[in-house]
Amino acid sequence: MKRILHFLIPILALTISVLIMNSSEFFRKPRSKIDDVSGYIEAAKADIIHGRLDEAKLNATNLEKAWETVLPRIQFSSERDKMGDFEKSLARLKGSLAAGDKENALIELSEISYNWENIGD
Amino acid sequence: MNESLVVFVRGLISFVTLLIFARILGKQQISQLTFFDYVLGITIGSTASSLTTDLDSKAWPHWVGLITWTGAVFLTQLVSLKWRSVHKYLNGEPTVVIMNGNIMEKTMKKIRYTTDDLLEQLRLAGEFDIGKVEFAVLETNGQLSVLKKTQYQPVTPHDLKLSTNYQGIGAELIYDGVIIDQNLQQVNLDRKWLYAELKKHGIKRTSEVFLALLDSSGSLYIDTYKDHITMPSDIND
Fold it and tell me: What percentage of chain A has pLDDT greater than the value 70?
């Protein structure tokens, strides 16, 4: 038993470490509607394309909430600068929507989408 | 992002990984390390440090770097163990710097080893008179092995044809107030005997004992927590 534990403990410790370091893909997947980042990105994009700016603002707010829900889960396996880029794009998106700038809002959403796909990759 | 929490978790990962990898790589002491081993150690340590605090990159690539270096060192160790020529190629060979009492200036020049270095290392080896040295070998880890001329070597009981008693390694029977039963069994003794011995020394409980050692001659060394020293000597300024 002692000999088994002698090997089992380090193997277990290394396995847990590897899983934590590569968990972003798993933890990015939505657990409910509240943390569906991709869903809100697509919804906001559709709203802007069809000129529904009020709905787009609502979806942008929901997107921010979803991001705040997902962030604690993915922070151990993701890069700080990529997470920072996501938050900056989100702030610019909100600004663009507040100004009614559809073109810029679409550009920012595209960047948000790109950042989201690359976080933890 | 909670940076402190992330650094804490990554620090734990780094610590556990280093601990396990260091155990895998073996028990070489700092003094036994070659220059290459030393550099390897620094690189592995530096990578582990980046794994902990470089939050702008993922922990995973650093971890892969860590396992790559450790794996490379482990492989080098295995290859060195199997093929002597590879071991010599990787770690270098010891160099004779004093032969038959003569300093090997040309050899020293080749390895960029100065006379000052030689004299310093001789002094560190306890040899202040170079005239007493027959051979001095600079080992691959940078230490100097010194062989004195026979007329200056210390006399041993063997030289005087004296018989000596066997001296083995002492067994720890009590550490920090706790009896180590495994060691007691190894020396074919039991708790009953130990309690009787403690009683002889005026000790009532094992919790009073910091360390109890049994040497190969059968004598028991006991150190209690109460040292009964009224004026401890202070070697500080």
Answer: 100
Q: Which helix (H) or strand (E) holds B147?
A: strand B144-148
Chain A hits for B55, Cβ within 8 Å: 79-80
Separation between Cα atoms, residue B141 and residue B207, nearest integer Å: 44
C-alpha B145 chain-centroid distance:
17
- Show residues of chain B in contact with A13, CB under 8 Å: 16, 20
In terms of Cβ atoms closer than 10 Å to its own Cβ (0-12, 13-18, 19+), residue B144 is buried
Mean pLDDT in order along chain B per 10 residues (237 residues): 87 92 73 73 90 89 91 86 84 89 92 92 92 92 90 89 82 91 88 90 89 87 82 70
Q: Do A76 and B9 touch (CB under 8 A)?
A: yes
pLDDT in tens, A13-46: 999 999 999 888 888 888 888 888 989 999 999 9
pLDDT at B226: 83
Query: Nearest CA to CA, how far is B24 from chain A (Å)?
Result: 11
Length of chain B: 237
Alpha-carbon distance of A69 to A86, in angstroms, equals: 14
Residues of chain A with a CB closer than 8 angstroms to some CB in chain B: 10, 13-14, 17-18, 20-22, 71-72, 75-81, 83, 120
Q: Which letter does DSSP use for residue B55 in this model?
A: T
**Nearest one of A31, A13, A121 to A73, comparing CA atoms:** A31
- Distance from the B215 Cα atom to the nearest Cα atom in chain A, whole angstroms: 28
Query: Which pLDDT score, from 0 to 100, does residue B29 have?
Result: 53
> Are A17 and B16 an interchain contact pair (Cβ–Cβ within 8 Å)?
yes
Q: What is the mean pLDDT of chain B?
A: 87
pTM of the model: 0.69
The string of pLDDT tens digits covering residues B104-127 is 999 999 999 999 999 999 999 999
Gap from B141 CA to chain A (nearest CA, Å): 31
Mutation target for A interface from B60, B67, B182: give the one with most A CBs within 10 A: B60
